Structure formats: C-alpha cells, structure tokens
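ping. complex inputs:
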Amino acid sequence: MRGSPTALSFEASLPSLVAQTLGAEVAVELSDLLPTLVSDLEDVDRRLSQVLGSAYAELTESARYACSTGGKRVRPLLMAAAARALGAESTGGIVSLAAAFQLIHTATLVHDDVIDHADTRRGRPSMPRAFGIPLAIVTGDYLFVRAFELAAEYPRSIILRCGESCAALVEGEVLQEASRFDLSVGREHYFRVAERKTSAIIAAALASVAEFGGAAPPVADALATYGRSLGIAFQVRDDLLDVFGETDLLGKPLFNDFREGNPTLVVLEAYARLDPRHQSEFERLFQLRRKRSKHLLRLRELTELSGAAPVVAREAAAWAERSAGALDGLPDGPYRHLLERLAHGAADRRS
Amino acid sequence: MRGSPTALSFEASLPSLVAQTLGAEVAVELSDLLPTLVSDLEDVDRRLSQVLGSAYAELTESARYACSTGGKRVRPLLMAAAARALGAESTGGIVSLAAAFQLIHTATLVHDDVIDHADTRRGRPSMPRAFGIPLAIVTGDYLFVRAFELAAEYPRSIILRCGESCAALVEGEVLQEASRFDLSVGREHYFRVAERKTSAIIAAALASVAEFGGAAPPVADALATYGRSLGIAFQVRDDLLDVFGETDLLGKPLFNDFREGNPTLVVLEAYARLDPRHQSEFERLFQLRRKRSKHLLRLRELTELSGAAPVVAREAAAWAERSAGALDGLPDGPYRHLLERLAHGAADRRS
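pong. complex structure:
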C-alpha cells in the first residue's frame, strides 16, 4: 500500500525553474511554449510524487525531499522538448520514463553528497545532513529501485538503454574517484569521466524518447549526440561555476572540486598554463587533503591568473555549438529551436 | 566494452558452500542431487562474473570482490531447487534471474556494511574496509544496476516482482534504522522488518521461478509462502547466531545487533523475560551508543539468563515448519524434499 500522493515541496515553483533553466532572454523569446512545458513537468512531478509514496512516512519524506532538492528538472525538460520537437501532441507516454531518469539522476546526487560530505544542495541541507548517512544511502537505493520500476513500463530496448547509461554513470564515478588529487590525468581523462558521469544519462534519455516516439534510428542517434555534447557543455560549465560562480545563485558553496581534488577541465587548464613557480604552488595547494579558506581562495586566484577561465568557457560554448548542430536533421520548429537554446544555455548559465 | 569474464575468487568452493548450506547430514542424504545443483550454481556464477565485467578494472575488481564475499548463494540455490522441483530439466532459463537476485542481495550487504561500519564479511575485509566508503557505495549502486539489467531479460511481471521486493527491502532497512536502540517496538515490528528486509526478496525470487516455469498461480503463491517463512526462520536464526554463534564459523564478529542497537527477536524476548533489576541493566547496556567488550559480554550473559534463546530457537523451527508445510501442494520428489530440508536448515544452521 502506498501513501497518498501529495505535492513535492520545491524550493522554487516549476515555472520559475523552467525560466531559470532557459535564461531570461530565451524565456521571453519562447514564452509561447512555457505553459506547455510547465504542464509537462507537472505531470512528471505528479508521477514522481506518486511512485515515491511508501507505506513508511519516513521513507516517503526522505525520498520526496531528495527529489525536491534534486535539481532543476533539466532531464525531464529536455525529454519533453525532444518529444514535442519530434511532433508529439502529448508527452503522456513518456511521463514515467522522464520520472525514471530524474530519479536516477537524483539517486546519484544523494549518494554523491554522502561520498563528498556535502552539507548543502540547492540552498537546502543535503540529504545526509538532513536525514543522516544511513537513511541517505538507503533512500538513494530506493530512488534507483523506483526508477527501474518506472522504466519497466517500457520496451526492453529502452530499459537496457536506461541500465547501460546507469552503468556508465557509475563507471564515471569510479574513474573520477580514482583520479582525485591527480593533476597528471590529462584532458582525455576529464572527458571520459564527463561523458560517463553526465552525458550518458542525457543521451540515453533523449534517444529513448525518440525510440518511444517511433522515430527512425538516425533521429535517435542525432538526439543522443545532441544530449552527449550538451552534457559535456553542462559539465564544463558546472566546473567553471564551482570556481567562479555565485553561491547565492548556485545554492551550494563554491570550491567543491578544489576541496575534493577533482581534476576538472578548468583545473587542468589552469595548471597547464601557469609558469613553473605558480604551477608548483597550485600543485601543492591542490593536493592538500584538507584545504582552508585561504588555500581555496588562492587556488581561485591562481586559476584566474592562468587565463584558463575564458579558454574553458569557449570550450563549453564549442560543445554547445556541436550539440545544437546535431539537431540539423530534425524537423525545423519552435521546439527544435528551444533545444538549440537549451544547449547554448547549458554553456553560459550562471546557476 | 566489457572485460573478459574470469572466475570469481571465492573464499570457498561451490560444492563446499552447498554442503555447508545443506548441513553435513542432508548433504549425504541428498548427495545424488549435489552435482546438478553445483553445476546450476556454477552457471549463475559464470553469468555474474560476465555481467560484472566493466571497462574499468577497478570497478570489475570491487564488484567481483563484493560477490565473492557476498554470501552462500542461498537464493540461487533455492531458485535452482525450486525450478527442478517444478520439473525443469535445466535451469538455463533462470540463470540471469538468479544472478539478478544474488546481485540485489549483495548490493544491500555492501551498503549495509557501509551503514554498520562493518569490518569483516565472511572472514574477509568488508567492502568499505577493502575499497573505501566511496567505492563501496558506488559498487553497491553498480550491482543494483546490473541486477536490473539482468531482470530486464524477463517478462514485465517478473521485473515488477523484482522491483517491488527491492522496494520492500529498502523499507525494511528504513524501519530497522528507525527502531535502533528502541526496546519498546514489540515483536510485530520485528516481523515487519524481517518480512521486508529478508523474506520479500526470497519470496519474489521463488514466485518468479514458478511464474517463469509456467506454473499455476497457486504454485507460485505456495513457493512465495515457503520463501517468506523460510526468510523469517533464517533471520530469527541469524539474530540468534549473532549472540551465541561461533565467530570462526560465521566469518564475522558477534554482537553486531547489540552494537548497532537492533531490537531483534532474541533481544526483545530476553528483555521481556528478565526480572526488573536485570531488565533495567539490560536496557541501560543495550542503549549505550558505544559498547565495550564487557558490555557486550554482559548483554549475552543476561540474554542467557533470561532463557530467551531456546524459546527463540523453537520459534525459528516453527517458521521452518510453516515454510516446509507450504510445499504440500507441490509434486513430491527429491527436490521438494531438498527444499523442505533447506527450510529446516535455515532454522538450525550454525553459520
């Protein structure tokens, strides 16, 4: 027996989340599409709230809390936009699938926060902080399980896309874990991690939407390529915001990657561009297992000094360009245009 | 691309694991069946080794390590015996399903060991001890994901049985977590936890075997009932062994439930049976968040003094009896007989 579905309590309303993801300018430009997209996301949230109901109030509460702090609904938004770009009149058929991918994403955020000892997530206490480590671990498992139950509503090929992308995600985490505090890993390693940790799920989600909608395989491939490149643009930008973003907009403290020793693209590029004296200072500080505020601020100073930031920002933009370009074969129209804008938005967002 | 399948390195050979699970007496009595069952389990292990291959050596290694310390293959053994009891000539069709249930079980053991700070598992360092907490969490996720990919080979109804039993398992963990150090929860609470945490997966695994084999619904129900009662017998015995077992046989230290404050059946019965003076001593010691050796030993002494052990042992035997009785409607034969013996074995095993 499940608890009765009640609304998830978000830190922000869906319309404002969507507007935030699109950026003010695009939100105005494509304002005709907003009510439809918001309604699509509402359907997904209703489904989420429903499947997370457990007979045990505590689990229902922790699972819904995880979902309410679990991101801006970028994946469901991309999926709804893709379905509509391919001509779907309704997104009813992919609601469970979008909920599944959102749950998988959320589950990994919850376990990430346990692993990274994160205290906040989108401006609220992180799961381990709010519910303790045991319940956070178990809730993450619960979200995975419910995700797979939702995915089970779809054909086997889609379930397998979902599963394979989850496995890739876990591989990405392992790869990242193995390279902590290691500045010698190189750019290829970074992209390997990002492709698995971030891109694989987005690519699988979009390809599944295409497949479910009966699109031809090249269309599914184009959307997968779009999703993969967008994922990398998103990740590169994410890493940049972790150094140069505004805490108030991000809803979490800066410098997580410095603190945890993640050799992100901006870290690697900064390190590579510094003169030998600053390079060895950067290395010494980056490799400290416990960094104090002055160390973190100095790492940012050195990153700034290196001139890496604009280079990396251009790289994010190039991935966004590649992403948008992958849509060339799709029918022209407002939703394809929206997808293109979302790709660019991933690369130049501020939160 | 997956790594090439290599053998899992077990702490014991499959024949000896099976013999151990059956108990010496039954192993002799049913020795004709052993080669077949061992061969069935070898198929499952081969499948496990195959699906756990990742492109990343580290993940392959941690996942295979988790499986090699992950229990006595009780679930796959029960599934193989059930399939054969229903007349299957081969268990080839359920190999992936048995591997899936074994992986789910293993995943939860890995996350349990993180939550419980366990140092050893079946005589070897636990996953968090051997690979660190981050990799242990992520490996548990990986095992879940691979389990669902395996389950995806089966009809939707079986996938959903699998998913629902996983959700129940997580609910069991949450219930257990919520009742730590609480001696007032009552027996019903204990059985609610055991039914979710232990029985649900076994019941789902066996019902799935019946369904896959084309058995009539009452047969699937009978096997589910068998599995549910066996699970409780198993859990009650497990809790008893945690207090009175032999470390060398168990491969893990005693007193985990005392340490973690789990109100198991033997704990609740001991507490209920003590005179007021000893009862308050028991309560005080049980509720210590950090117990020293002398506290643990005194708790065992008080448990012994209470006379709860034989009562709880009889209760385990009664559940085994109920379990075996559920098979009355199944065709008579050596494998049904084996299943009955396995139920009794769950209640009187020493490891």
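Chain B has a mean pLDDT of 90.
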